[in-house]
C-alpha cells in the first residue's frame, strides 16, 4: 500500500456549507449564495459550474441557504461547535 | 491591480443597520447630494441583522415609558458613566423611528387593538417590543436605499480614513476583496458605521468565526476612527454576553422572558432578578458559573406546548436561525431539557455596553466632518433601534456638513503610503498566514484581557500585542480575500491594544464583570466618575485621559442609581 506524499503542510478542514450539485444552477449564471455571504467564503467553480465553499470562515448565519432559489445550499453548524 | 479614484459629497462606510439609515436620511435631507454607501460584504445581507431581528430592546413608546425614565434606566445600568444628552436624544426620537420603520414595512407585534405589544425585561421600565416577523428588515432597508437613489458599492474593504491637510475628514481608502484594486474615495463628510469589534476575543470553541457578533465586524471602524485622530470612549467597558454554550448566539432571555422563560443555575433556581444584559448581571452570571451551583441554563421546560412552539418559531427564524439546527444536533428540545449557557468572548460594542467612538447628540465625532452611528458609536446600550436613530442623526448631520464645506486638500504622500501598506501582504512572496496570526492574537486577548482583569496580566498582554505588531510586517496574502483577513488582523491588534490600555488606565472596578479589576476591587466614584477617553496623541502614541461627565439633564435619586447593583436574588433565611 502506498501513501501520497506532501510538499508542504496543508490543514484539512470539514466545511460547514454543502452544495447539492444536482440542484445548483451556477452554470446558468446564478451567483446568489456567493453574493449574499457576509464573509465572502463561497465561490463558483467555473470548470464545473457549481458553487463551493472556498474558505472555512462561516458564521452559520444562513443567507446563502435561505436565498438560494433552488434549495441547493445546506448550512451545517461548524464541527468545532456542533 | 489598479487604483480607482472617485469623489462624492457624503460617504457612508458600512451597510448594515445604521449605515443604510444614514445614507437614506442624507439623501432625503438633500436629494442633490451624491451619497455613496460603501459596504465590505453585500448590503442585502450584511451586518449584525443580516437575518433580521426578533425584537426592539429599547423602544420608548408613549403610554409605557417616557424618555426621562429611559435615561434614568440606562444611567443606572451603565453605572452613571453616560453623556445623558446623547441618551435623551435617542429616547426622544425612538418612537418616531418605530413609526417610520412601521410605515416602511417592518413588522412589530401589536395587540388586538393595534397598539404595540410592549414587554418588560429591564430592571425598572418596559422597553421590549417583539418582532416575531422581523426577518425581512434588511429587505425593507434595501428598498428605501433604491427608492432614494443612494449609490452602493459592495465588497470594498475600508482600511483608513483620509484626513485633509487642515484636519478635516476627506474620505476613505479601501480595496476590493475580489480584485485587489485600491480605491481612493474622496468625500466632504463621512459616516462611520462599521459595527462592533466582534473578532477580539476567541470563542471557547476555538473557531475564529464562531463569534457572538457578525465576524465581518472585526473592529475596522474603531481602528479607522483611532488613526484619523478621533476620541474613543468607554473602551474598558467590554461587551460580554450570556450565550448558548458553544453555539455562541443568544439563548434568548429577551424573547423567552415575557413568555415565562428564565435563567437558572444547575438546580433550576433563579439567581438573578432581571435578565436584561448589564455588567452587573454578567457578574452574577460569572459567579454562578464558577461557583458550586454552575453551570447556568435557560429554563423553558415548564412552559405549555403552544408557548414553546411559539418561542421556537421566533428563535429559529430570526437573528440567528441556525440555533434550531444546533439544538437538534445536541438533542436539546426546549420541552425536555434546559439550554446550557456560557459567557461569550470579549468584544467592543456600544450597542450592548458602552465602548465606542465618542459622539455628541448629533452623531458628530471629535474629527470635523466625521460622524458615527450604530454599535461602534459610544451611546451606551443603544441596540438596533439606537443604530437607526443615530444613523438618522449621522446622515442628517453629514448632509449639512457637506452642504457647508468643500473637499479638504489631501497630500499625495498620504495616498502612496496607504496603498503601499495595503498591498504589501499581496506583494510579499512568502510570510505568515493571516489566520495563524489572528488565532494567536485573539488567544492572547483571552489569556490576558478576559475579566476579571489583572494588572500584571494586562501589562504582559500589551507586550505580546507589541510583538505581534512586528508580525504585521510579515503577513502574507495569496489572494485579495486573504488580504481582507490580513488587514482585519491590523484592526484587531489595534482594538486589543486599546482594550488593554483603557482597562489599565481606569484603576477601579465598575460595570460588574465588564471592568472587574482584581487589584482595584472597589468602585471609586471620587476619582473615576468620569469618561475614560482614548486617542492618538500629538506624539502618535495611544493615550488615555479623563473627560468629566456633563451635568445630568435628568436628575437621579439614590435608589435609582443603585438599582442595578442589587440583581442577585437572596434567599430568605429559613427559620430553624
**Beta fraction of the residues of chain A?**
15-25%
DSSP, total strands of chain A: 4
CATH topology of chain A: Alpha-Beta Plaits
Q: List the total number of helices of chain A.
A: 2
Spatial sequence of strands, sheet with the most strands of chain A:
1-4
Protein name (chain A): Ferredoxin
Domain 4Fe-4S ferredoxin-type (chain A): 15-47, 49-78
Pfam families (chain A): Fer4_7
Keywords (chain A): 4Fe-4S, Iron, Iron-sulfur, Metal-binding
Write the layout of secondary structure elements.
The complex is a heterodimer of chains A (82) and B (576).
Chain A (H helix, E strand, L loop, with lengths): L16 E3 L12 H5 L5 E4 L4 E4 L9 H5 L5 E3 L7
Antiparallel strand pairs in A: 1-4, 2-3
Chain B lengths: L2 E5 L2 E4 L4 H12 L5 E4 L16 E2 L10 H11 L6 H21 L24 E2 L6 H11 L3 E3 L2 E8 L5 E8 L5 E5 L2 E4 L27 H8 L4 E2 L8 E3 L8 H4 L5 E3 L14 H12 L5 E4 L5 H11 L7 H8 L8 E5 L12 E3 L11 E3 L4 E2 L4 H22 L7 H16 L6 H16 L5 H18 L7 H26 L19 H4 L1 E7 L5 E7 L9 H5 L14
Parallel strand pairs in B: 1-9, 2-3, 2-10, 3-6, 10-17, 16-18
Antiparallel strand pairs in B: 4-5, 7-8, 8-9, 11-16, 11-19, 12-15, 13-14, 14-15, 19-20
Overview of this protein structure:
Chain A has 82 residues and is of the alpha+beta class. Chain A is built from 2 helices and 4 strands, in the order βαββαβ. Chain A has helices spanning 32-36, 63-67; strands at 17-19, 42-45, 50-53, 73-75. The longest helix of chain A has 5 residues, at 32-36. Chain B is of the alpha/beta class and 576 residues long. Among the domains of chain B are: 242-343, Flavocytochrome C3, Chain A, domain 1 (Alpha-Beta Complex), CATH 3.90.700.10; 413-524, Fumarate reductase/succinate dehydrogenase flavoprotein-like, C-terminal domain (Methane Monooxygenase Hydroxylase, Chain G, domain 1, Up-down Bundle), CATH 1.20.58. Chain B contains 16 helices and 20 strands. In chain B, the strands form 5 sheets. Chain B has a 5-stranded parallel beta sheet, covered by helices on one side. In chain B, strand 19 and strand 20 form a beta hairpin. In chain B, helix 12 (434-449) packs antiparallel against helix 13. The longest helix of chain B has 26 residues, at 480-505. Chain A binds chain B through residues 35-40, 54-55, 57-63, 66-67, 75-78, 80-82, and chain B through 41-42, 44-47, 50-51, 154-155, 177-178, 205-211, 214-216, 246-248, 320-322, 325-326, 329-330, 481, 484-485.
